[in-house]
Write a structure and sequence with these properties.
Number of helices: 14
Helix content: 25-40%
Oligomer: single chain
Distance between the termini: 30 Å
CATH topology of the largest domain: Alpha-D-Glucose-1,6-Bisphosphate, Chain A, domain 3
CATH architecture of the largest domain: 3-Layer(aba) Sandwich
Number of domains: 4
Shape: globular
Strand order of the largest sheet: 1-5-4-2-3-6
Radius of gyration: 22 Å
Structural class: alpha/beta
Largest sheet: 6 strands, mixed
Strand content: 15-25%
Number of strands: 21
Amino acid sequence: MDTLTCFQSSQISGIVNKDIDESVAYKLGIAVAHYLDAKCLVVGGDNRLSTPALKLALIKGIKNYGCNVIDIGVCGTEELAFANTISQADGGIIITGGAQPKVFNGFKIIDNNNEFICQKKHFDILQQSILQHEPPMPKEAGKLVYQNYIKSYIQQILSFIKTDNIQSLRIVVNAGNGMAGNVINALESAFLAQQIPIQLIKLNNQPNGEFPHGAPDPELAHHQRKTSDAVKRYHADLGLAWDGDFSRCFFFDAQGNAVDHYYIIALLAQQFATKQPAQKIVHDSRLMWNTIDTVSKCGGETIECATGQTPMAHRMREEQAVYAGATDAHHYFKDFFYCESSMIPWLMICELLSTTNKSLSELINQQMLAFPTSGEIDSKITPSATLLDNIEHELAAQAVDIKHHDGLTMSFRNWRFSLCQSSPHSSLKLNVESRGDVALVQQQTNYLLQLIQGTGI
């Protein structure tokens, strides 16, 4: 079967007018409506310059199939999930390029349970529908309505904190000229109306599809530097930065240091486990000892899971877990319809800073000492078919636990590591952690990198 280049291992994404165009968008609209057997779909889009035309074509395809459309306008991914739930639609599609440069765009699809349609089995069916045939078209086209859910969405995310607990905070927020800017403005209005004493210092807050400061990727060094410098310049308590569709939020402490997502997971998990004892917390396998230790001390239960939106959301539902956190900066909440949110985490951290009267660095320093990490290291090589097997064989005799959730994870008495390959053609990502031994982390990281470079050609 022929393939479309925009259908990748876990996403629909590509360069506009090369991999993705209005014809693909139109046919995708028909294909998704047919695949989900949908009577109504929610559609939104980010602020990229290519999004409006793609969105019009997508909506036309959905309507021509006989499916109604709720157009929620410009939005982030979590707003799509919120609207899908509130409207009781059969699913939704957002046109977004996420953190990629402006020449890219793509589609994220969710079903009626807000689970992402992003696995190979899904994509094969959608591609076949687009390339080989169109489903029978009804005589009557679907209807289009426009809705704005921003007020109820803001109420929902603010419900995760007790606003009376918030003390005076100054926060630098860097929206990267993406969709987070609109939500930041709405939250700022809510803060003023409810007299919540949070002062927001905005960077790149105006959505701008030209992305004049570069791709909306908060991992890029120049974006991190700008956020860090602003935190120090304005003597802020906290710094925050988002990607284009604000599916991820990056944290900076009051000294302008970027904070490892791993330690944010434990802080959030601790809040849930403390407020509601015996709750279940889902975490990924890349780094986990700190999360397990924190939650167990609060009387909660931790559940290990493969990284990714689909497995984590699915496992949360299975276990009725209250929260799930992944070290790639994705956070999921039971009371947000088991969906991910990048806005809820920082609101909860603000409440924690206020109730403990501690800075973010004070909250995580003890964790960093107890469970130091290497930080995620991209090996920059495409591994051979036997690389992970070779490494496992080399170290198996000393290991106390071996798993293959996301590639290879091996635990030893005082240290552990994970090697994650997110897609068939990606490079390996290495994470190492120990029980309180920074030197051991460095030693084993160097050793593993030698193994990877020596056998990964």
